[in-house]
Every structure is written in structure tokens, then in C-alpha cells.
Amino acid sequence: MEKCATCNLTIHPNFAGHHKCGHANCPICKEAVTSSQYWGHIRSHPGHENDAPPSKRMSSTPQNNTGPRLHRR
Question: Global pTM?
Fold first, then answer.
């Protein structure tokens, strides 16, 4: 099992997500990588050269209502 380079804790190979110090497991080789290294590391594996983070979705509900405000009296 890989040890986290930042906090020296053992990261289980089946761990999915991010370690509390910012490291995550590579889903391919299970090596601990930081968030900033994640996509570069993924692309270093054969067959994953064109992988990229998912595109941000546009919400159908407006997040910031900029229309006129109706005040009740």
C-alpha cells in the first residue's frame, strides 16, 4: 500500500476520493497523487493520453437572479 507523501498515512488502494491532505489515488495504478498532479498523472498512462476532467454543466436553474425584484407590502 502507498503512503501519502504529505502526512505519511497509508492510503488503501480501493480508496476513492481525496485524502484529507489533498492527495487522491490514481484509479489506474493506485499511486497517491495531489489534486494538481491528478490529470497530468492520468494522462501519463498508456491509453489515457486524451483524458480530461468532465466539463462543467450549465444548470437549468439560474444561480443568480438578476431580473426585477417584486416587493410585497
Answer: 0.54
Identify the three-state secondary structure at position 44: coil
69 grid coordinates: 425584484
For the chain (73 residues), the mean pLDDT of every run of 10, in chain order, is 70 68 77 82 92 76 58 60
For residues 55 and 39, give the distance between their C-alpha atoms in angstroms, rounded to a whole number: 13
Phi, psi of 29 (to 5 degrees): -110, -5
- Cβ-contact 55, 41 below 8 angstroms: no
Contact partners, residue 7, CB within 8 Å, separation at least 6: 19, 20, 21
Degrees, nearest 5: CA angle 23-27-28: 120
Report which DSSP code applies to 38. Answer: H
- φ, ψ dihedrals at 18, nearest 5°: -115, 140
